[in-house]
């Protein structure tokens, strides 16, 4: 767990203000809280209960992104022009990025385990792509079977994307070597297995069957990729490998294995490239964008989403373009660029409404009306727009397929959060919804779900003394809030 970093800017701003009761002394935390409450009463006509304990948590860095009402009150009382002037920064859903840091990860770009080497890059041949993927899968299995947390290198994603954008088209030719003869039935079996793991992922979380998915890639997929096949079967085989590999990477991402997930997404990009499928390549980049946004790497997330769109221009269907626009919108929302985010959301909606579902890739089946509402809800939530968030989150949650339990959980927690976003905060309703959502989620093996719960819990800090908040925290602590 990341250590909280003190918010020196907020403390300095408070201490620069004179105490109204003791001339020459700095304003105390209690006096600041009272001043904020008075300001909010005068400007909104509503009573608020900010106290010295909440101010202390802000200054200690325990809460880095108070709700929009308290941020506005603090800026008004302390004379600050922006949230950043008071040391407040949006909270990434995943890895904590300290204020002032770039959020950049250590990049090494390759790995070795027991003599096997993989390079997380756009490989120069289909055989090199297969060898790199096999080494990654074998290393991942070693981690699972030995129980050791083998170091998985980070990936220089920017360099990989640049090489993909500038690479010439790559199509497979007939492969005459190998002991296994791959056929269309083999490709169909791979897709069927992938469907099964995808269903398990959506309902029980990425940590549930991830090791079994890696085992399938290593024992079933690898021999086919190194076998004999015609050019047509080869293209289908590499596309199936791309889909299965990105799905396994998505399970690693959901389980909190972020460096590992990035390696899987890059290997999926390789397979899509050699399989001649730009839409699948863009899907791999979209997942990298989604993950970067989750980790707080918002600019990188925006670059990746735009690279997916630019690198596949004129080659993909409207539904796929809608998915790219959604990733761009999410990154823009995280950056606080409301106008540009709204434009991207409108573009997503236009593409979605013009799609022909029967002509879209089968792997895009999850991107339905519920998913579109979910994208709107997430973006509006991150922009602090409570009413709009509420409307779309309700639509997403009610329309989500029953087997998509994790998606319903995300939408439910975003819905709960919408009740503590703005001036019309309703803590009791927020906790009531969150209680129901956490109970339905159960012991889902998803680090992302736990991150959403923790983020919602942090939004409750200004209301820590409310009975509904105390009751929610007690129940959530026993399930998801403090789960490993």
UniProtKB/TrEMBL annotation:
UniProt-annotated stretches for the region Disordered: 1-25
Taxonomy, superkingdom: Bacteria
Protein name, entry field: Transcriptional regulator
Organism whose genome encodes this protein: Haloactinospora alba
């Amino acid at each position: 767990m990341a250590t909280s970093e003190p918010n020196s800017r907020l403390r300095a701003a408070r201490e620069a203000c004179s105490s109204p009761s003791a001339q020459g002394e700095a304003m105390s935390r209690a006096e600041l809280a009272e001043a904020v409450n008075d300001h909010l009463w005068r400007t909104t006509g509503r009573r608020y209960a900010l106290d010295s304990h909440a101010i202390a948590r802000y200054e200690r860095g325990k809460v880095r992104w108070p709700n929009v009402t308290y941020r506005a009150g603090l800026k008004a009382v302390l004379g600050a022009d922006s949230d950043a002037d008071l040391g407040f920064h949006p909270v990434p859903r995943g890895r904590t990025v300290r204020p002032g840091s770039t959020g950049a990860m250590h990049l090494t770009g390759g790995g070795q385990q027991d003599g096997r080497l993989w390079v997380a890059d756009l490989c120069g041949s289909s055989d090199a792509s297969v060898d790199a993927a096999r080494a990654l899968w074998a290393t991942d299995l070693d981690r699972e079977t030995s129980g050791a947390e083998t170091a998985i290198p980070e990936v220089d994603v920017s360099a990989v994307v640049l090489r993909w954008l500038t690479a010439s088209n790559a199509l497979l030719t007939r492969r005459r070597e190998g002991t296994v003869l791959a056929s269309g039935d083999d490709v169909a079996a791979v897709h069927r297995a992938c469907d099964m793991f995808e269903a398990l992922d959506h309902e029980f979380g990425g940590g549930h069957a991830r090791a079994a998915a890696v085992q399938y890639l290593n024992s079933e997929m690898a021999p086919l990729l190194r076998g004999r096949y015609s050019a047509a079967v080869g293209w289908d085989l590499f596309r199936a490998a791309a889909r299965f590999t990105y799905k396994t990477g998505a399970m690693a991402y959901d389980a909190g294995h972020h460096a590992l997930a990035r390696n899987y997404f890059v290997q999926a990009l390789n397979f899509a490239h050699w399989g001649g499928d730009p839409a699948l390549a863009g899907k791999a980049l979209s997942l990298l964008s989604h993950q970067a946004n989750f980790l707080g790497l918002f600019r990188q997330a925006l670059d990746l989403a735009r690279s997916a769109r630019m690198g596949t221009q004129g080659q993909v269907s409207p539904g796929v373009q809608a998915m790219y626009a959604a990733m761009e919108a999410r990154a823009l929302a995280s950056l606080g660029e409301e106008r540009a985010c709204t434009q991207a959301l409108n573009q997503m909606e236009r593409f979605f409404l013009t799609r022909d579902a029967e002509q879209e890739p089968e792997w895009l089946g999850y991107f339905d009306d519920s998913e579109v509402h979910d994208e709107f809800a997430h973006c509006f939530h991150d922009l602090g727009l409570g009413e709009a968030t509420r409307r779309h989150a309700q639509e997403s949650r009610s329309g989500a397929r029953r087997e998509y339990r994790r998606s319903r959980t995300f939408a439910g927690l975003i819905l709960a959060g919408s009740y503590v976003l703005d001036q019309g905060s309703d803590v009791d309703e927020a906790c009531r919804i969150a209680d129901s959502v956490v109970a339905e989620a159960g012991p889902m093996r998803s680090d992302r779900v736990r991150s959403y719960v923790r983020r919602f819990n942090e939004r409750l800090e200004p209301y820590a003394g409310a009975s509904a908040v105390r009751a929610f925290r007690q129940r959530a602590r026993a399930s998801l809030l403090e789960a490993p």
